[in-house]
Amino acid sequence: MERVTLDFPAAAVIHRHPLTVRVTDMNYSWHLGHDALVSLLHEARVHAFATLGIPEWDMQSYPSIVVDLAVQYQHEARWPDALVIETAVPEPGGKALTIYQRIRNPEADKVVATARVNQLLLDLSTGRPVDVPEKVRQALAQARGI
What we know:
single chain, Thiol Ester Dehydrase, Chain A, 6-stranded antiparallel beta sheet
């Protein structure tokens, strides 16, 4: 079986977001379900960009769309684990933002999952992707401490 392996770019971290596993996040095996994990990633990603003043739905007048998602599941999480989701965004190339997220359980000293999302920014008038605006690039660079 081929497995997804992702390398989390720790030097590109822009935000850390604490979240707690909820009872409603549990699956049949009583651990964090894959569908809930994706929702937690989304929640943390929205907070990360909002902290920079560039919400996902309005990145310099362009909304973003997820074009793909890869998740490497590494350890279980259960209710009521307190997790931290780190969001890292390397320097954007062209029209895409590649966003990495790592879900950690600091108390257990384990990585629950690592994920990568590719997002495009769209010009709604044409329906076409646009280059990542300079202000978005600058906000990300500043958050990375560059």
